[in-house]
Specification:
The chain is an alpha/beta fold. 48% of the residues lie in helices and 18% in strands. The protein has 2 domains: 177 residues, Bacterial extracellular solute-binding protein, family 7 (D-Maltodextrin-Binding Protein, domain 2, 3-Layer(aba) Sandwich); 134 residues, 3-Layer(aba) Sandwich (D-Maltodextrin-Binding Protein, domain 2), CATH 3.40.190.170. The chain is built from 14 helices and 11 strands. A 5-stranded mixed β-sheet has the order 2-1-3-10-4, sandwiched between helices. It has a 4-stranded mixed β-sheet with strand order 8-5-9-11. Helix 2 runs antiparallel to helix 11. It is globular. Bound molecules: beta-D-glucopyranuronic acid (BDP). Beta-D-glucopyranuronic acid binds next to loops. The site of beta-D-glucopyranuronic acid (BDP) has 10 residues, from loops.
Length: 328
């Protein structure tokens, strides 16, 4: 009798445990990679995405964003998301090229005439094509964030013409195209992790780097390299991405909810981005940076001709798509 009660109780307990286990197995714990610090537009937006997606899926997806690059550099994180070790991320599309060749297009200097054109392309057919190419490599792009335009900065002198770059060493993001880009101006492009740039500028390992105002400011690079020259040579979008392995585990309804949350977060990011760009410019100038306009931008564009020619020679199949994007 006693034994029977005991085993009934044990049975009931086992059933409860089984239900709980099944319940928690349904809730996915997603880890998110983010290179930026607290308060940065991308960070605020990515945190909004995490919160909204969790609410919209009624907790079936629980998301945590790890800020400040604590989960590693972007090239490493791209590999981790492919392996499903990281579930979501905000990636700059520059270092995506080595993994997803079609996305190299976005790293061609002066591809877009401005941010509006970039939005038209990425929010439309071009964005879908990049997403499809990324999905083949295990990464799903849900939405596109702004990254403004990138300009050259260095510790030596204002840059006003391509020849000023000659002999100088510039840190670039991980992509051969950026090495070629600096090389086409007679400089030396060195791929390096974002986190190492400040120290390398300070110690003179590199003379300069290139980035938008918000990153130039948030990293304090402006303290180590005070000449910021508005070349605006790259306008590269950033993605909100999810590991395909994690994505495929969601129901169609939850996928739709997570995608909506990502797109909503992009609206927030773009709004905050526009504000931060202006604020950051003021902050770096107040902090001692010297910002110079580049009167003859066409000279920089012309210097990039060999980069394009070489790229098209190696990727003739992309020529039509590039033209299409430029016409968007
Ligand atoms: C910033 C991007 C970030 C890149 C960084 C870099 O937002 O994703 O990692 O530039 O230069 O503007 O590495």
């Amino acid at each position: 009798m006693l034994n029977l009660t005991k085993s009934l109780k044990a049975g009931a307990m086992a059933a409860v445990l089984a239900v709980t286990a099944a319940g928690s197995a349904l809730a996915a714990d997603w880890r998110g990679w983010n290179i930026h610090p607290e308060g940065y537009p991308n960070t605020v937006a990515l945190e909004q995405f995490a919160k909204d997606a969790e609410a919209a899926t009624e907790g079936r997806v629980k998301m945590q964003v790890f800020n400040g690059g604590v989960l590693g550099s972007q090239p490493d994180a791209i590999e981790q998301i492919q392996a499903g070790a990281i579930d979501f991320a905000n990636f700059n599309m520059g270092p995506m090229g080595p993994i997803v060749p079609l996305t190299n297009i976005l790293s061609l200097p002066f591809l877009f005439t401005g941010v509006d054109q970039m939005h038209r392309a990425m929010d439309g057919a071009a964005g879908d094509a990049f997403d499809a190419a990324m999905q083949e490599k295990g990464i799903v792009a849900l939405a596109w964030y702004d990254s403004g335009s990138r300009s050259l900065y260095n510790s030596k002198k204002p840059i006003t013409q391509p020849a000023d770059v000659e002999g100088m060493k510039f840190r670039v993001m991980n992509n051969q195209l950026f090495v070629d880009m600096i090389g086409a101006m007679g400089g030396n492009g060195t791929p390096m992790a974002f986190s190492e740039v400040f120290q390398s500028l300070k110690t003179g390992v590199i003379d300069g780097a290139e980035n938008n105002y918000p990153s130039y400011e948030s990293t304090n690079h402006f303290e180590a390299a005070k000449f910021y020259s508005i070349t605006e040579h790259l306008i590269i979008p950033e993605c909100v991405c999810v590991a395909k392995a994690s994505w495929d585990k969601l129901s169609a309804e939850d996928q739709a909810a997570v995608k909506k949350a990502a797109r909503d977060s992009a609206q927030t990011q773009r709004r905050l981005w526009a504000e931060r760009e202006k604020a950051s410019r003021k902050m770096v100038e107040a902090g001692g940076a010297t910002v110079n306009e580049v009167a003859d931008k066409a000279a920089f564009q012309a210097a990039m001709q060999p980069v394009y020619e070489n790229y098209l020679k190696e990727n003739p199949d992309q020529a039509d798509f590039i033209k299409q994007i430029q016409g968007m």
